[in-house]
Amino acid sequence: MQIKQLIVGPIQTNCYLLISQGEMAVVDPGGDPNKILEEIKKTGIQPKHIINTHSHFDHTLANKEIIKETGAKILDLKEGDEIKIGDEVLKIISTSGHSEDSICLFGQGFVLSGDTLFKDGYGRTDLEGGSEEEIQKSLKRLSEIIKPGTKIYPGHGEIFSY
Ligand SMILES: [Zn+2]
């Protein structure tokens, strides 16, 4: 899978284009729709899906424009769901804590962690729907299932190895 990182919007959100076998999903189009559309255009691929790692505005701001311009559909994903992009399958793990609806996407050798897990810590829990207790549970679960060396693509900041 090819993963293209774009930094967008008012709080420097990582938007990712996931590409495999001529299919594409856009993860967290959190602003700067024109910048995202430009990158999409460069690939020559029409995205099928939009995935939001959670519903905070800085991860969803450009949903509408991407839908309007490309016809992509928002996937509402929950624990246990799987999504196929080309020949890659991503598994969804629910990781509430930063928000109630936070998810992580597990692929072959990589995880898109949204605002649950960052290089230098984890997402804040003081916003509506946030819970310190829940995020600690989610982080513990992640630590049990993410293999060392897995590449982590967070919702903000640097991509890193687990
Ligand atoms: Zn957030």
Topology overview:
Elements: E1 2-8, E2 13-20, E3 23-27, H1 33-43, E4 49-51, H2 57-60, H3 63-70, E5 73-75, E6 82-85, E7 88-94, E8 103-107, E9 110-114, E10 117-118, E11 121-122, H4 132-145, E12 151-154, E13 160-161
Parallel strand pairs: 3-4, 4-5, 9-12
Antiparallel strand pairs: 1-2, 2-3, 6-7, 7-8, 8-9, 10-11, 12-13
The chain binds zinc ion.
Name some characteristics of this structure.
35% strand, alpha+beta, 162 residues, five-stranded mixed sheet, binds zinc ion, single chain, Metallo-beta-lactamase, Chain A, 4 helices
Concise structural overview:
Helices cover 23% and strands 35% of the residues. With 162 residues, the protein is of the alpha+beta class.
Number of strands: 13
Q: Which band does the percent of strand residues land in?
A: 35-45%
Show unreliable segments: none
What is the name of the CATH class? Alpha Beta
CATH superfamily: Ribonuclease Z/Hydroxyacylglutathione hydrolase-like
Distance between the termini: 18 Å
Task: Tell the overall outline.
Answer: globular
What gyration radius follows from the Cα positions, in whole Å? 15 Å
